[in-house]
Write a structure and sequence with these properties.
OB fold (Dihydrolipoamide Acetyltransferase, E2P), five-stranded mixed barrel, about 450 residues, Rossmann fold, about 20% strand, alpha/beta, five-stranded parallel β-sheet
Length: about 450
């Protein structure tokens, strides 16, 4: 078991897990999946198509006929990580196909790694398949190459990401995601529900709803109702909640209609958890970001959410050291955090990203100042987290089991998203537990980010 402090980068996906047998002579393809959980879903879709054509998934470089690297281009540091992963795949395998957000800049990739076989952009599944076919023709066996109804999943069997839309209509100056992934494109609600139903039928106990802007779901298609399901986040959340699995909402912008989700959480249809990218609190910084600048009003909304659903867990990420950020503006952020008392908080230091409009803003903050502010921010966030978790000692909570080993069971409460937030550990009487079990525990001990508890018998 290992403690899991909050991830400080919002652009890192959970590690993919490969667990499937390979038949003799079956061509194998490797996959390195970087980026956010939305990119992980893209990787799952690519591998599902490949498995349908008779390919196996190789867990290592040497056993693969080719390696697909699904890249991230959110930050310059993420781009560097993607280039490093491409280089490693080239060294270890030699046949590399690049896709994902960084694939929208093919010259950037080939300028560093000219030997890659192909470069495709995000969601260009057909081009990825074409490149794989050139590297290693498919060899399907219809008698044994059977796919589960859920397709290939890169997460543990008991939870799954459910992508409800692509793209984003926001024009935040620090972000180039809309340039790479396009404008908002919502999936029909009935298609989302059908996928969710298949996942739950296959044993998934937790659905993690993701998109670039979950609150805006359905806006681009006029909140269309089709086959008994309306494409609006409130309606979709209610429909998903009827399936009997935990439903967790990520990337929820604080639009006014978000308050309509809170009663669903109070009723138990949706987990009492909101992941909201506030980014900052000072109105002038938010204006320079080209984001809504109503931090004081947001505090009123938070108070209303907690009034209507006292158990709600609020998670957010923030940028420190944004161009032009003064010490007074940063102090406003700290004061706001003191008042908001968010449960789960991550932060990252501002970075220039090629193509972002924020690069051209005046008064960029020196790196040493960014570093100092980052540590001050995280010290405050840690203190808030520790106090909130200490208050849970002696309470009874429902948890979902993620992993069981010889040391104990690693679990999560309803307020913890996988591989992003904290854990609850059970180190006694855990032998009968299995991944995916939902059990009741009494909290015995609290740390800065994690809890320890005992099974309630």
């Amino acid at each position: 078991m290992s403690q899991n402090p909050p991830n400080l980068r919002p652009d890192i996906a959970p590690s993919p897990r490969f667990q499937e047998p390979v038949r003799p002579g079956q061509p194998k393809i490797g996959m390195v999946s970087l980026g956010c959980p939305k990119a992980l879903v893209d990787s799952e879709r690519i591998l599902t198509r490949l498995r349908a054509e008779g390919y196996a998934i190789s867990p290592d470089y040497r056993g693969a006929e080719a390696v697909i690297v699904n890249t991230c281009g959110f930050l310059d540091s993420a781009k560097a990580e993607s280039l490093e992963a491409i280089g490693e795949a080239l060294r270890e395998n030699g046949k590399v196909i690049v896709t994902g957000c960084l694939g929208a800049e093919p010259e950037y990739i080939t300028g560093v790694h000219p030997k890659v076989m192909a470069v495709t952009g995000p969601q260009q599944y057909e081009q990825v398949l074409d490149a794989v076919h050139k590297a290693s023709p498919p060899s399907p066996d219809p008698f044994v190459d059977l796919l589960p109804a859920t397709g290939v999943k890169l997460t543990p069997r008991h939870f799954s990401y459910l992508k409800i839309s692509e793209g984003c209509n926001h024009k935040c100056k620090f972000c180039i995601i809309p340039d790479m992934r396009g404008k908002l494109a919502s999936r029909p609600a009935h298609a989302v529900m059908r996928e969710a139903e298949k996942l739950v039928e296959a044993g998934v106990r937790e659905l993690l709803v993701i998109s670039q802007d979950t609150s805006a779901y359905g806006l681009d298609i006029g909140y269309k109702e089709e086959r008994g399901h309306r494409a609006h986040i409130t309606d979709l959340a209610r429909d998903l909640g009827s399936l009997g699995a935990w439903v967790r909402l990520h990337y929820v912008y604080p639009y006014p209609h978000v308050r309509n989700l809170i009663p669903l959480m109070a009723e138990g249809l949706v987990l009492p958890y909101l992941d909201i990218p506030f980014q900052h609190a000072h109105p002038d910084v938010l204006k320079r970001m080209a984001r809504p600048a109503a931090a004081a009003k947001t505090l009123d909304e938070i108070a209303a959410w907690r009034r209507d659903c006292p158990d709600i867990t609020l998670r957010s990420t923030f940028i420190v050291g944004y161009p032009g950020e003064t010490e007074a503006e940063f102090q406003t952020l700290l004061d706001w955090l003191d008042e908001a008392q968010l449960d789960r908080v991550g932060a990252f230091k501002y970075e220039n990203v090629a193509g972002a409009r924020s690069n051209d803003l005046p008064d960029h903050v020196p790196e040493e100042v960014k570093e100092e502010r980052y540590h001050r921010f995280m010290e405050k966030a840690l203190a808030i987290s520790a106090a909130k978790l200490e208050a849970k000692v002696g309470t009874t909570l429902q948890v979902i089991v993620d992993e069981v080993d010889e040391a104990g069971a690693t679990c999560r409460t309803k307020g913890d998203a996988p591989e992003i937030d904290g854990n609850l550990f059970i180190d006694e009487d855990f032998e009968g537990l299995s991944a995916g079990d939902i059990v009741t525990v009494e909290v015995d001990e609290a740390g800065d980010y994690d809890l320890w508890g005992s099974l309630v018998k």
